[in-house]
Amino acid sequence: MANLKTKVDLYLKDNSKNWEAEKDNLILQNDGSGDYIHTWNVSGVSKPTTDQLNSFETAGNDAETLNNILSKRAREYPSLKEFAEAYCEKEIGGDSTKWNAYKTAYNKVRTDNPKE
Fold first, then answer.
1. In the list 37, 41, 67, 93, which could disulfide-bond 25, CB 3.0-4.6 Å?
2. Going by C-beta distance under 8 Å and a sequence separation of 6 or more, which residues neighbour residue 82?
3. What is the helix, strand, coil percentage profile of the chain, to 5?
4. Total-model pTM
């Protein structure tokens, strides 16, 4: 189930707004029985109804899944330092051993964490 922030973000985008620009104009809270919109002061866009937010459930689930995959990839990719060392060694020294190992590790992360 997509979380409220994700659905609100999609609702804002659908109304030509974005979360970063509007985050100070709304407050999401949880009173123990679930998340809800506590404050909505977004200019030119009415507070979404439950039905409107629920219409973003599938898109929200897809967005959260993709964000999880991209976050996992970011944690698992070889570091920029490893890239620089491998690339420089290949270009300066002519030895491609580290470069090939870097490419293999990079591609393994992509294969192990497909976007679809």
1. 41
2. 102
3. 65, 10, 30
4. 0.74
